[in-house]
Specification:
Elements (H helix, E strand, L loop, with lengths): L9 E4 L6 E2 L7 E2 H4 L4 E4 L6 E3 L2 E5 L7 E3 L20 H6 L4 H10 L38 H15 L33 H5 L15 H5 L1
Parallel strand pairs: 1-4, 2-3
Antiparallel strand pairs: 5-6, 6-7
C-alpha cells in the first residue's frame, strides 16, 4: 500500500487486522503502509443486498460495481493462484472455450495431474471435465481459513459467474493483467467490448502467467 500516492484512499474490511510492525512483532503490515492515506472500511454486517446467498455492497451506489463477502477465504500471501468458480456446463454454454485453447490444452495440460472422461495419456480434453481444474486447499496453513466454507462461497459465485451480465474478477488473478495496461483502469463498457469472453479462459493458455497445469508448474 505504501507504493500508492498519499492521495489514494484505502478500502479495507471491518475485520481486517491492521496491526503494524514494529508495534506488533508478528504483524504483516508496517506503519508506513497507512501513512498519509484516508482509510475507509467496508462492513458486510450492514449489507442489505445478497447475490446467490453472498452479502453484497453496491460500492458506487449505481449497480456498476459490487463487493461480495466470501466467507472462508483468507489470502495473506501476495503470490497465490486464485481458485476460479466452476466452469460448469451452463458456463461453457454461455462462454465456450476458444477453439485454439481447446486444441492447445490437449498437449499443454499434464494428464499426470489432471484428467477427464475423454482424456487419455498425454492428451487432455478440457471440454469433458466436469469438476474445476483448481480446487480449494485443505492443507493446514494454506491461505484458506475455512476450506469447507470457502468451497460453499465458491459454489455460490459460480451460479452467477455463468451469467453474461456479471464479470467476476478474483483477487491475485494474473490471467487478466494483459488486458489492463495501466492502473487504475476503467471497466466501463466491459460487456460491449466482450472483455469477459476474451479473458475467462486465459488461465489455460500456456503462455499466460496464470498457467499452472504443466508437470513442472504443478510440482514446483
Amino acid at each position: 500500500m505504501s507504493k500508492f500516492p498519499n492521495a489514494t484512499g484505502l478500502l479495507i474490511g471491518s475485520e481486517t487486522n491492521t496491526a503494524t510492525y514494529p508495534e506488533t512483532a508478528n504483524a504483516s503490515l508496517q506503519t508506513s503502509d497507512f501513512a498519509g492515506h484516508v482509510v475507509n472500511t467496508v462492513d458486510f454486517g450492514t449489507a442489505e443486498l445478497t447475490f446467490s446467498g453472498l452479502k453484497a455492497i453496491d460500492y458506487f451506489g449505481d449497480g456498476s460495481f459490487y463487493l461480495l463477502n466470501t466467507p472462508g477465504f483468507l489470502e495473506e500471501t501476495p503470490f497465490t493462484t486464485p481458485v476460479r468458480p466452476d466452469r460448469g456446463q451452463t458456463f461453457k454454454k454461455n462462454f465456450p472455450c476458444p477453439a485454439h485453447l481447446l486444441e492447445e490444452v490437449q498437449s499443454s495440460v499434464s494428464t499426470d495431474y489432471f484428467w477427464s472422461p475423454l482424456s487419455r495419456e498425454h492428451f487432455f480434453n478440457v471440454a469433458s471435465r466436469a469438476q474445476p481444474l483448481l480446487a480449494i486447499s485443505d492443507i493446514p496453513g494454506s491461505v484458506y481459513s475455512d476450506p469447507v466454507t470457502s468451497q460453499v462461497s465458491l459454489d455460490k459465485i459460480a451460479t452467477f459467474d455463468a451469467d453474461p451480465d456479471f464479470f467476476v474478477v478474483t483477487a491475485h488473478d494474473m490471467s487478466v493483467l494483459s488486458y489492463f495496461t495501466s492502473l487504475p483502469a476503467s471497466l466501463d463498457g466491459w460487456k460491449a467490448d466482450g472483455l469477459k469472453q476474451r479473458t475467462v479462459w486465459n488461465f489455460v493458455d500456456k503462455l499466460n502467467p496464470a498457467f499452472v497445469f504443466s508437470p513442472t508448474n504443478v510440482t514446483s
